[in-house]
Design a protein that fits this description.
Strand 5 and strand 6 (58-60) form a beta hairpin. The model has no long low-confidence stretch (mean pLDDT 95). Helices cover 0% and strands 48% of the residues. It is an all-beta fold and 128 residues long.
């Protein structure tokens, strides 16, 4: 069955970096956009923070632009999220999900409701 599994979270000091991974199984990422979302304790889900498209194109929300970098390795069916210059407000559970990447549709048009097959998440805590 289709499954996405996140990993790479942990505790990091402000200004530090982490790299999250999202590994897919049961499907090929070649035809899917993969997005990252997060949910802080007591708050609603935020995102998509960034999206990796099937053609290597990307989308970033303003809140993470310039600090987060999304990339993919289709051979490994994996999408990565490199997070730099982390801030305490980045503390959250991070999730990846997939959305069908239809050619001609900008990644910025892929709203949260278009994503599915959610992973279980990986916790990122930014604290000194």
């Amino acid at each position: 069955q289709v499954q996405l599994v996140e990993s790479g979270g942990g505790l990091v000091q402000p200004g530090g970096s982490l790299r999250l991974s999202c590994v897919g199984s049961g499907f090929s990422m070649n035809y899917w956009a993969i997005g990252w979302f997060r949910q802080a304790s007591g708050k609603g889900r935020e995102g998509p923070l960034c999206i990796s498209g099937r053609d290597g194109n990307t989308y970033y929300a303003d809140s993470v632009k310039g600090r987060f970098t999304i990339s993919r390795d289709n051979a490994k069916n994996t999408v990565y999220l490199q997070m730099d210059n982390l801030r305490p407000e980045d503390t959250a559970e991070y999730y990846c999900a997939r959305a069908f990447d239809q050619q001609g549709i900008p990644l910025s048009d892929l709203g949260p409701s278009t994503f599915g097959s959610w992973g279980r998440g990986t916790q990122v805590t930014v604290s000194s």
